[in-house]
Amino acid sequence: MNQCGMLSGLLRYRCTAEIFQRCGGGWMKPSSRALSSSTGLKVPVRLSSSSSYMKEMYLAWQGDHNSVHESWDTYFRNIHGSRPSGEASERRPSTLLQGRALSHSLDTTQKVVEDHLAVHSLIRAYQIRGHHVAQLDPLGILEADLDSFVPSDLITTIDKLGFYGLNESDLDRSFQLPSTTFIGGQESMLPLREIIHRLEISYCGHVGVEFMFINNVEQCQWIRQKFESPGVMQFTKAEKRTLLARLIRSTRFEDFLARKWSSEKRFGLEGCEVLIPALKTIIDKSSAGGIDSVIMGMPHRGRLNVLANVIRKDLNQIFCQFDPNLEAADEGSGDVKYHLGMYHERINRETDKNITLSLMANPSHLEAVDPVVQGKTKAEQFYRGDRAGKKVMSILMHGDAAFAGQGVVYETFHLSELPSYTTHGTIHVVVNNQIGFTTDPRVARSSPYPTDVARVVNAPIFHVNADDPEAVMYVCLVAAEWRSVFNKDVVIDLVCYRRFGHNEMDEPIFTQPLMYKQIRQQEHVLKKYSRKLIAEGAVTLQEFEEEIAKYDKICEEAYTSSKDEKILHIRHWLDSPWPEFFTSTGEPQSMSCPPTGLDEEVLQHIGRTASSVPLQDFKVHPGLSRILRSRADLVTSRQLDWALGEYMAFGSLLKDGVHVRLSGQDVERGTFSHRHHVLHHQEVDKQTCVPMNHLWPNQAPYTVCNSSLSEYGVLGFELGFAMANPNALILWEAQFGDFHNTAQCIIDQFISSGQAKWVRNNGIVLLLPHGMEGMGPEHSSARPERFLQMSNDDPDHIPFVGDFEVQQLHDSNWIMVNCTTPANYCHVLRRQILLPFRKPLIIFTPKSLLRHPEARSSFDDLTEGTTFRRLIADDGLANRCPGDVKRIIFCTGKVFYDLTKERKLHHMENDVIIIRLEQISPFPFDLVRVELDKYPNAELVWCQEEHKNMGYYDYVRPRFLAVVANRKPIWYVGRDPAAAPATGNKSTHINELKRFMETAFNLMMSLFKKS
Question: What predicted TM-score, i.e. pTM, was given to this entire model?
Answer without folding.
Answer: 0.89
